Every structure is written in structure tokens, then in C-alpha cells.
């Protein structure tokens, strides 16, 4: 059979439950406070931005490394068989654009 509780035990239990309830209500009040909600939203947005920026950096870095590997050998020396044709095409395109631009200015 369960032990009989004294009035002091019951009163202590009520006080403890009131304190627990007060702590829970305080925590709820902090969670639903507008400043807390705004702060949480800012933190989530900053984390999402950091993740996106990190992913973009990784993608860009990988792309630069891939392009660099096409024009630079493993020893760090330029791969002239690839650099020279690209340089010639670039000079031809820029020269052509310059010629078209000066032709439009004249006439």
C-alpha cells in the first residue's frame, strides 16, 4: 500500500510544480518574443547564405582548377600546345572587335 503523504509533502510538491511551470512559461515567453524570433530568422538566413557561399566557392574553385589544369602541366610549366592557339584566337577576336568598332565610328 502506498505511503500516506503528509501535508508538508503535498505542499512541497505543489511548490516544486509551480516552479517548474513558471520556468516553462518563462522559456515559452523567451521563445515567442519578437526579438528572439527575428534573431533566429537572421541566424538561419546567415547560415543558409554561408552554406550557399561556401558551395559557390567550391564550385568556382573547382572550375578554375579544371581550366588551369588544361593550360598548366603538373610541374607548373605552361602547356604551350594549348596556350598558343587560345592566345591566337583571343588576339584575332579582340582585333576583329576593334576593327568593327572603328569601322562603325567612321561610318
UniProtKB/TrEMBL annotation:
The chain crosses the membrane at residues 83-101. It holds the Pfam family DUF3618. Keywords: Membrane, Transmembrane, Transmembrane helix. This is DUF3618 domain-containing protein. The lineage of its organism: Bacteria, Bacillati, Actinomycetota, Actinomycetes, Kitasatosporales.
